Predict the 3D structure of the following.
Amino acid sequence: MSTVRVLVGTRKGAFILTSDGTRERWDVSGPHFGGWELYHLKGSPADPNRLYASQSSSWFGQVIQRSNDGGKTWETVGNKFVYDGVPGTHLWYDGTPRPWEFARVWHLEPSLTDPDTVYAGIQDAALFRSNDAGQTWQELPGLRGHKSASLWQPGAGGMCLHTILLDPVHPGRIFIAISAAGVFRSDDAGTTWRPMNRGLKSEGIPDPTAEVGHCVHRIAMHRSRPDVLFMQKHWDVMRSDDAGESWHEVSGNLPTDFGFPIDVHAHEPETIYVVPIKSDSEHYLPEGKLRVYRSRTGGHEWEALTNGLPQRDCYVNVLRDAMAVDSLDPCGVYFGTTGGQVYVSANAGDSWAPIVRDLPSVVSVEVQTLP
Amino acid sequence: MIIRVVLPAHLRTLAHVDGEMKLDVEAPLTQRSVLDTLEAGYPMLRGTIRDQLTHRRRAFVRFFACQEDLSHESPDAPLPDAVARGAEPFLIVGAMAGG
């Protein structure tokens, strides 16, 4: 029987949750790297025992960990992220130029085909790649070389490159998203980049329809149909049917269209999930109810999924990297909260149960489906 | 010379060491020579105490010895004789934080 392994990054360490395909009984391993912030952990699609983890602390900086045995043991690998050439400047919150400065790795995206190749999205926003299993890292400088880069500004959480989508169909196509610059696409394996923000409208910036400057929180695709993208923007849930060339809003009947994560059902490319959050100034759930919203129509029409989730006095948040799906049938959906709960639905969202209730604040959730 | 070095708990875990360390550091004994030796023996500590490029001390890391805060001393200033003799440890400390 298949098993699932859930990789959970928290403010105070990493946890690995495992279950068989029923997804009813769970083993909990951790904390790994206790006391450190684990912004993200992810396994290689090409070798599920190869895991990468971003470990950081305000005191001791950035560490990258690698496991070759599915998280039983770990070893430190390279943590030297040096911008290519003279870093230049971007804009600070007050509109003044500020030199690019490495802060942390937000997201690690292993190659779809090579376990030794992995991409890192960092703050201040840049994309790095390692071709030697994390030992050394090189910037893909074309992204920051884009003419708009000197005008990029940080979102409230810092100027982070938080999303990396590797197109499984078009060789060399990569999508990334930056808060608060927006979506960029490369069609040549990261050498050159174009902004992909047409159709986005953000009221909080001087030109609401600017080519760059949008606070994109997360983008997602179904691997069978990579020209269709879904986006949770700061406000607005968006959809693109042309690989990011244009976007249109699909927020529909959501109670609020502010939020962080968005994900796609493993077997139904038109079924998507979001967790609406009350507002950008409150960052908690509306009405004290933890509701995942599912659309089976690729947006516009949404239904609240509440069975098994707290429906009173709940004021957590679900961060951008804290939702994932497995590839079992029925599809499992997972998310973690800032209150330390990790929930699973083994039936595509119809009902939910907590795997753990009392972890440190959850930053990221990834799932591996193992044979 | 053999000197004594104490790491903060998180870095002891990262470096897989217990308690106080003994390092064989070549003269002159300075913060720089201690950290160079430490990072050569324990490469996983690179970047956790000082920046890998500029070698500037990380803001929330402090260096103590002989009841003195040496954090703002030049990295090339000689360390106290008591550290060189092994009578006192060189302490690498994570700054206190929290309420």
